[in-house]
Amino acid sequence: MNFPTEQIKFTPAFVLDESLLIKNLETLARIKKEAGCKVLLALKGFAMHSVAPLVSQYLDGVAASSLNESLLGHEYFKKEVHVYAPAYVEQELASLTEIANHIVFNSVTQLRRFAPYVRLRAKELQKTVHIGLRINHGYSEVAIPLYNPCAPGSRFGVRWEELDHLTPEDWDLFDGFHSHTMCEQGADVLERTLKVLDERVGQWLPRLKWLNLGGGHHITRPGYDLKLLEKTLRQFKSRYPHLSLILEPGEAIALNTGYLVSSVLDVIAGDLPIAILDTSATAHMPDVIEMPYRPEIISGAAPGELPFAYRLGGLT
Fold first, then answer.
1. Any idea what DSSP says for residue 243?
2. DSSP-derived pairing of the beta strands 158-159 and 38-42
C-alpha cells in the first residue's frame, strides 16, 4: 500500500480515505436493504463529525452513550438518536428527551424512576420517544473478560432470569429490548447468539416493538459472511415480524478506512532499537494497551521477517 505521506504537513495526524469509508457504508446500506433492519453509527467507535453528512446518506442515525454524544449526533448527523447509558443523571434527562428518539435504561430501578418522566416530557414536546430496557441473556463468545458484557458481575443489563419479576406496570413503561454481547465478531457468532436469546427471552418478544442487537458486528471486515448475516436476520425477523431490528456497529463503519501518521523523533540504540514517535498509545491508540492488540504498520511485518526490527515508543 502506497500512502502519500508527503501530503501530511504535521504529525501526528489521523487521515481518512473517503473512498474506503464509502465502500464500508455501501456494505452497511446493503445489509439494511437485504435484512430489513436499521443500522446506526455507534459514536463511541467513530465520531468524525466532518463526514456526518456522508454517513447520514447511508445510515439511519447514531447510537450515543452520553448527553454530549447525543448533542453531537443530533447537531451533525441530523437523523435518529438512540441513547443508552449504565445510569443517567437526572438533570440531563430533560435535554436527552428533547434530542433522543430512543432512550434505553440499564436497570429496572432506573426504568421505574425515570421512564414516567421521559414519557411526560415527550408528551409535552409532542414527540415520540421509545423507551427500552437493556437485557443480559447470559451468552457471549467474547474471550477477553474486560470486553465481555455477560461476564460474571457485569454491570450491563437486566439478567434474563429477572424478567420474570417484572410487573405489568413495568412492562407498560417500555417497548423494546437492547442486547449487546459481541465484540469484533462474525455473523456465525450472531447466529448462535440469537438462538440463545430466542430460547431465553423469546417469550417476551411479542410484547415489544423493537430489538436492538447492539454493536460488535465486524460487518466490513475482509471475509465477513454477509450472506449469513442477512439470512440470520431475515430468519429471526420471520419469527417476530412485528419487531424492528436495529444494529449499531461502530468500528465496522470506519474499519480499515484510515491511518494514524506519525514521525520518528529519535532512535534509542540497543539490542532492540527503540523508535520514539510523536504519538501516544494512551491518547491515540488506547486499545493497544486495553485490548491489547498489535497495530498494523504499512510496509511492516512480524518480528524477524525483515532485516531491521524496532520497538515503537511514544511520548507518554
1. P
2. unpaired
